[in-house]
């Protein structure tokens, strides 16, 4: 088994993955400039895979293989499984595009072509957000997904039949991911780059899986953007949950449902998610 470790400018990484046409890559480290990643291959395919990687780097005008090593087959297969398993969050089956998983009856498949969200499995806050959607999204509703990232929540809303979905993120790379993943799932989502203050319309449902610092700055703006429900997460531990409860009160809103999930690395802390409406 061969492992090719490569580096590429971060803004080209998603395009590289698309060119790789579904073959998986494991992200080792990533910052705004450089992404370092590994690609694994059976020995018999190694030369072909290496040629493919190098030719994509050549087409993109950037990127290089920095380490090429032989590894034990069992290590490779364990790592692979650990990082790229399909995940079922009722009713959605989230499938990395290169995995084969047949959705069962009543499961709604969401394919993600881009690996970023799968470095350590799907984040608990994303899972909480997804678990709220079947109850609150109705086919006649319009939806805004603030901080869309991979586009996963917008795609899930589209699959539940929402009639118009806009998705915004400040990061250009996120918008590229959102577009690719929307296309991969054959759904119509308007993914665009911008921040919360650029949102000019009101929506029936607003989804916002953000961090407390963003809620501290923008909660009052977000509170004005929805007609029916605001569903939020990204809130860590009691202290942050209390802050959110204060913002909710101050804006004359009401929490109608609360969910929490254990943090994966620290089982004593929880992530929170809230469904909110006007009071
Ligand atoms: C925790 S991720 C959520 C990704 C995805 N919605 C999910 O649930 O898995 C938060 C996203 O919010 C984006 N973000 C941060 N500040 C923002 C802002 N002011 N306006 C829009 N998006 C923002 C980040 O770039 C990031 O992609």
From TrEMBL:
GO MF term (any one): protein methyltransferase activity
Known catalytic reactions: L-lysyl-[protein] + 3 S-adenosyl-L-methionine = N(6),N(6),N(6)-trimethyl-L-lysyl-[protein] + 3 S-adenosyl-L-homocysteine + 3 H(+)
EC number assigned by the record: 2.1.1.-
InterPro entries (UniProt xref): Ribosomal_L11_MeTrfase_PrmA, Ribosomal_PrmA_MeTrfase, SAM-dependent_MTases_sf
Main location: cytoplasm
Keyword Transferase included in the entry's annotation: yes
Listed transmembrane segments: none
Binding positions (S-adenosyl-L-methionine): 126, 147, 169, 209
Subcellular location: Cytoplasm
Domain of life, per lineage: Bacteria
Cellular component terms per the entry's GO annotation: cytoplasm; ribosome
Leading EC class: transferase
Gene3D superfamilies in UniProt: Vaccinia Virus protein VP39
Keywords: Cytoplasm, Methyltransferase, Ribonucleoprotein, Ribosomal protein, S-adenosyl-L-methionine, Transferase
Coiled-coil segments on the chain, per record: none
Pfam families in the record: PrmA
Function: Methylates ribosomal protein L11.
Protein's recorded name: Ribosomal protein L11 methyltransferase
């Amino acid at each position: 088994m061969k492992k090719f470790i490569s580096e590429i400018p971060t803004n080209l990484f998603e395009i590289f993955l698309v060119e790789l046409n579904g073959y998986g890559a494991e992200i080792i480290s990533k910052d705004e400039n450089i992404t370092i990643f590994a690609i694994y291959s059976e020995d018999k395919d190694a030369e072909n895979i290496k040629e493919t990687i190098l030719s994509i780097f050549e087409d993109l005008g950037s990127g290089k293989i920095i380490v090429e090593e032989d590894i034990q087959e069992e290590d490779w297969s364990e790592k692979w499984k650990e990082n790229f398993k399909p995940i079922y969050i009722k009713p959605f089956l989230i499938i990395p595009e290169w995995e084969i998983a047949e959705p069962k009856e009543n499961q709604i498949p969401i394919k993600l072509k881009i690996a970023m969200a799968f470095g350590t499995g799907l984040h608990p806050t994303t899972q909480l957000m997804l678990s709220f959607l079947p109850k609150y999204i109705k086919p006649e509703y319009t939806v805004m997904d603030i901080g869309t990232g991979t586009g996963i929540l917008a795609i899930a809303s589209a699959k539940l039949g929402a009639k118009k979905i806009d998705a915004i993120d400040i990061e250009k790379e996120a918008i590229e991911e959102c577009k690719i993943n929307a296309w991969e799932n054959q759904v119509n989502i308007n993914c665009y780059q911008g921040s919360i203050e650029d949102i000019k319309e009101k929506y029936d449902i607003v989804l916002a899986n953000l961090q407390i610092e963003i809620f501290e700055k923008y909660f009052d703006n977000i509170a004005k953007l929805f007609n029916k429900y605001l569903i939020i997460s990204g809130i860590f531990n009691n202290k942050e949950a209390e802050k959110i409860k204060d913002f909710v009160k101050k804006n004359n809103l009401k929490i109608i449902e609360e969910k929490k999930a254990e943090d994966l690395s620290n089982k004593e802390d929880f992530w929170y998610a809230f469904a909110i409406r006007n009071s």
